[in-house]
């Protein structure tokens, strides 16, 4: 304990409640220093071993941050408050700098690395400078140390470890104070990833700087990089020596709104979605600008590219494999990039082979039977399409061909989880209904309060919108209840896509090979707690007095009605897949969070406590959104190719933003109440009572929502003792104001935006943002391949309407209903392309950080109480995971347990890498 006091400073040891006199975390030997030195890992907070064991921190624990050497500990330390001296005494302190190496380097990178090692020897070094929290009374600026050079760069250039520690030594005066910032100047040719810096030798104990940033060469970015220590400060509490640096760094991150951004830039700015189309390729590739009075939409990260040749309002495209700009530190780290690239490779191969075969023989455009779909998992695309080795040899992609021949399994799809327990589950009505509350899109169901349902569309524009549903359609399905009784007893539920799709149906159905209805599906809640579908309404625009614009189907009674019912369910699932992807997934988590992330980097200093709280929940989101603009939601991209609305996909998303999206309803309890799936109840732990007891998404989600809310409230109360501190925090207010006024500019005047005037307001806003970025996104994303990888279960695209007697196609339907059903589903090319993409999107990378985990968990904040509270939050997340496991084994919960029933694990917090159908990452990272 005496040695711990000497290393950390007795004041810290005595203040923290985390350290007992008999137990503290011992540390491992760091081999990057001399063998003669005895070294110890350092954390500003020492957590009892038994407490750390209870908190299963997985891959977020990134290894040693720095090391303290024994000889340095024995040297006299700079006093924390030096006595008045006629002449300050000089002391030596040391910086331990942790740099993360690339795992794999190409030839050019290796050559530049050797060049940097050479020029480091002749004085073009990495240079550090310490900056005090105190001002110099003479210069009126912050106290600064002499510059120090990073040692041994050239000697360690061949070290193959993922992390390499370097040292630098400073001479500082005894009246220097406490270091609050450090500057880094990279005079090498190549950028490097700076993970952390620890300063040793001050009486206050080690001072940590968690950096996690790319430091560019001065030839690309002249000037010094600024990093602040892990101690959080509200703007009003900023030490005098750091005030100017705090403002300077934020000003740099905002940029000036002009110019084309370089990939090495760190500029965060806003723009509209004017880069989804490519009008230079022709009118078919032009797309409307999203964002503005005509088509409101959230803002995205500005790249500043030049306009297209044919439309000055459209930004020019960057086509893959060229990278899209996002600020340098937002780009995928290496292991994430490798995972994503491998997924893209699979997508290329899955698309390439069907395309080739389709061009050779039109006979292979369609699935001829369900066995053809099964063969994608058992045999693979190669065998399915009959491609021979000689054809592969003719492909102009020798590297890809070699990869195929080495590992033919790359062209064989994994069996989706929906087939793992019951191959025919997707055909059953009970499974169709179960997936509404425990599948990949459990957020569309709502409780019915009136029957028949009523459209909110403008009758002048879309004509009379009375529903075709009548009481006689459902009366026999209500177990003896009247319709009014079923409504009053909260037994009727609905998935209503009428108003979302109807304005676009004529345009969609005019597309080649696309056919859609605007659907409504009615469900009855049985005594066992499960749902059963009792009616499906299919609507087309009312084009005339004799138009058959509305049609109601009920559960089948014979062979013909069985097939029409299956087709109707497929159309419902296609509607559901579109709304899930375009609205609930992309719009509500990816797109609507981006403005808050951009504004956070522009308005909240890295030393702001709220930035430190939000930081892990913003990771990778800008990068994945940029990749989506490039390949997924762009003109003729994957979404348009694979989903029924085609070129109108993003217009549907924008219409939902304008007509349905409200930030004040995005928190889980508010959303459940809005949909009638819960009622307010202050006696319940989360303030709501579910109207459907076995609703897996809501049951598990409320546990996670509560844990996040409690953690956020503890955090907020630590820094904001009263509401005036919230109201008077200029950085905080600027962040929230800019998120709305600029990031959501088109709806900034909406009366429903929450205020940010009290601590409760702040807790609510932050909890909602963290919920959306973590659990809500996970619930909507990581089941895409497990449920959608078998296309008949959730067809993203439909190519045939349901024929009626008298229609030209009716005879074909009657003659071979299975063939007609398969023709209505996506083609081989469309199916395999979709499967490859959702496989990639459902994959966890090895560097995923899950809820309750953080990089450098013991030093991300210099506040010991907050670090302790975070370990408590982590323990609560683990407890929730055990509770979810328990629920999935409870036979009374029939929506998640039973013969052939998949457990509901999409909100189980942890996961292994790969497609697992579980895991809640901290952020929208894929």
TrEMBL record:
Residues 232-926 form the Lipoxygenase domain. InterPro entries: LipOase, LipOase_C, LipOase_C_sf, LipOase_CS, LipOase_Fe_BS, LipOase_plant, Lipoxy_PLAT/LH2, Lipoxygenase_dom_3. Pfam families: Lipoxygenase, PLAT. One of its GO terms (biological process) is fatty acid biosynthetic process. It comes from the Eukaryota. Plant lipoxygenase may be involved in a number of diverse aspects of plant physiology including growth and development, pest resistance, and senescence or responses to wounding. Residues 107-229 form the PLAT domain. Its cofactor is Fe cation. This is Lipoxygenase. The gene is TorLOX4. One of its GO terms (molecular function) is oxidoreductase activity, acting on single donors with incorporation of molecular oxygen, incorporation of two atoms of oxygen. SUPFAM superfamilies: Lipase/lipooxygenase domain (PLAT/LH2 domain) (SSF49723), Lipoxigenase (SSF48484). The keyword Nucleotide-binding does not apply. Pathway: Lipid metabolism; oxylipin biosynthesis. Its main location: cytoplasm. One of its GO terms (cellular component) is cytoplasm. Its EC number is 1.13.11.-. Gene3D superfamilies: 3.10.450.60, Lipoxygenase-1, Domain 2 (4.10.375.10), Lipoxygenase-1, Domain 3 (4.10.372.10), Lipoxygenase-1, Domain 5 (1.20.245.10), PLAT/LH2 domain (2.60.60.20). It comes from Trema orientale. It is found in: Cytoplasm. The keyword Oxidoreductase applies. Belongs to the lipoxygenase family. Keywords: Cytoplasm, Dioxygenase, Fatty acid biosynthesis, Fatty acid metabolism, Iron, Lipid biosynthesis, Lipid metabolism, Metal-binding, Oxidoreductase, Oxylipin biosynthesis.
């Amino acid at each position: 304990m005496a040695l711990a006091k000497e290393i950390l400073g007795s004041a810290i040891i005595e203040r923290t409640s985390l350290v007992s006199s008999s137990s503290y975390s011992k540390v491992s030997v760091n081999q990057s220093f001399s063998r003669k030195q005895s070294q110890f890992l350092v954390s500003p907070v020492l957590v009892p071993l038994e407490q750390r064991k209870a908190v299963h921190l997985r891959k977020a624990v990134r290894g040693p941050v720095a090391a303290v050497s024994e000889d340095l500990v024995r040297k006299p330390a700079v006093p924390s408050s030096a006595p008045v001296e006629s002449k300050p005494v000089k002391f030596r302190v040391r910086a331990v700098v942790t740099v993360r190496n690339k795992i794999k380097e190409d030839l050019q990178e290796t050559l530049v690395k050797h060049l940097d090692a050479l020029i480091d020897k002749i004085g073009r070094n990495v240079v550090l400078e310490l900056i005090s929290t105190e001002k110099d009374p003479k210069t009126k600026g912050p106290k600064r140390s002499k510059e120090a050079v990073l040692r041994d760069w050239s000697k360690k250039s061949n070290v193959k470890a993922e992390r390499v520690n370097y040292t630098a030594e400073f001479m500082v005066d005894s009246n220097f104070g406490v270091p609050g910032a450090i500057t880094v100047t990279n005079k090498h040719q190549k950028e490097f990833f700076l993970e952390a810096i620890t300063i040793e030798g001050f009486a206050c104990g080690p001072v940590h700087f968690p950096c996690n940033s790319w430091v560019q060469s001065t030839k690309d970015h002249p000037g010094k990089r600024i990093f602040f220590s892990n101690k959080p400060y509200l703007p009003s509490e900023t030490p005098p020596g750091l005030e100017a640096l705090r403002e300077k760094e934020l000003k740099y991150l905002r940029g000036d709104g002009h110019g084309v951004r370089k990939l090495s830039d760190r500029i965060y700015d806003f723009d509209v979605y004017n880069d989804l189309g490519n009008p230079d390729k022709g009118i078919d590739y032009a797309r409307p600008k999203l964002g503005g009075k005509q088509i409101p939409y959230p803002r995205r990260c500005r790249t500043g590219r030049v306009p297209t040749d044919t439309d000055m309002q459209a930004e020019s495209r960057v086509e893959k494999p060229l990278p899209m700009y996002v600020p340098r530190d937002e780009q995928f780290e290496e292991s994430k990039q490798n995972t994503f690239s491998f997924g893209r490779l699979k997508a290329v191969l899955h698309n390439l082979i069907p395309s080739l075969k389709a061009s050779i023989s039109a006979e292979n455009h369609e699935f001829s039977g369900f066995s053809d779909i099964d063969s994608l998992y058992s045999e693979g695309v190669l065998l399915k399409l009959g491609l021979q080795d000689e054809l592969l040899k003719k492909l102009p992609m020798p590297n890809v061909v070699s990869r195929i021949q080495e590992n033919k399994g790359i062209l064989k799809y994994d069996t989706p989880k929906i087939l793992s327990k019951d191959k025919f589950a997707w055909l059953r009505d009970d499974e169709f209904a179960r997936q509404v509350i425990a599948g990949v899109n459990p957020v569309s169901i709502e409780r019915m309060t009136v029957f028949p349902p009523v459209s909110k569309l403008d009758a002048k524009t879309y004509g009379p919108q009375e529903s075709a549903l009548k009481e006689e359609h459902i009366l026999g399905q209500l177990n003896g209840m009247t319709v009014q009784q079923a409504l009053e007893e909260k037994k009727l539920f609905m998935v209503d896509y009428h108003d979302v799709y109807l304005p676009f149906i004529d345009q969609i159905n005019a597309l080649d090979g696309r056919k859609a209805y605007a659907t409504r599906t009615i469900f009855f809640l049985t005594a066992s707690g499960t749902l059963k579908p009792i009616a499906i309404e299919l609507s087309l625009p009312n084009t005339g007095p004799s138009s058959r614009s509305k049609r109601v189907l009920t559960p089948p009674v014979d062979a013909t009605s069985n097939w029409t019912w299956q087709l109707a369910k497929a159309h419902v699932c296609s509607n559901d897949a579109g709304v899930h992807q375009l609205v609930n997934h992309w719009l509500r988590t990816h797109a609507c969070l981006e403005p808050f992330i951009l504004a956070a980097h522009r308005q909240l200093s890295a030393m702001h406590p709220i930035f430190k709280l939000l930081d892990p929940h913003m990771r990778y989101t800008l990068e994945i959104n940029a990749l989506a603009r490039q390949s997924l939601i762009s003109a003729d991209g994957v979404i348009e190719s694979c989903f029924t609305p085609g070129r109108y996909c993003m217009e549907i998303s924008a219409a939902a933003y304008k007509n349905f999206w409200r930030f004040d309803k995005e928190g889980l309890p508010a959303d459940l109440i809005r949909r009638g799936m819960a009622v307010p109840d202050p006696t319940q732990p989360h303030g709501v009572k579910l109207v459907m007891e076995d609703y897996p998404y809501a049951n598990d989600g409320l546990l996670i929502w509560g844990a996040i809310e409690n953690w956020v409230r503890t955090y907020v109360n630590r820094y904001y003792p009263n509401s005036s501190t919230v109201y008077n925090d200029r950085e905080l207010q600027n962040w929230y104001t800019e998120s709305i006024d600029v990031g959501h500019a088109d709806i900034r005047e909406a009366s429903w935006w929450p205020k940010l005037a009290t601590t409760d307001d702040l807790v609510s806003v932050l909890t909602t943002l963290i919920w959306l970025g973590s659990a809500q996104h996970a619930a909507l994303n990581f089941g895409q391949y497990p449920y959608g990888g078998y296309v008949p279960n959730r067809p993203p695209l439909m190519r045939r309407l349901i024929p009626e007697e008298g229609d030209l196609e009716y005879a074909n339907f009657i003659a071979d209903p299975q063939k007609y059903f398969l023709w209505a589903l996506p083609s081989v090319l469309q199916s395999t392309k979709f499967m490859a993409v959702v496989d990639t999107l459902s994959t966890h990378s090895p560097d995923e950080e899950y809820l309750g985990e953080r990089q450098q968990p013991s030093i991300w904040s210099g506040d010991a109480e907050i670090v302790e509270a975070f370990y408590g939050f982590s323990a609560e997340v683990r407890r929730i995971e055990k509770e979810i496991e328990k629920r999935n084994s409870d036979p009374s919960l029939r929506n998640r347990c039973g013969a052939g029933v998949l457990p509901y694990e999409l909100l189980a917090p942890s996961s292994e890498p790969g497609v697992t159908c579980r895991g809640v990452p901290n952020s929208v990272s894929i």
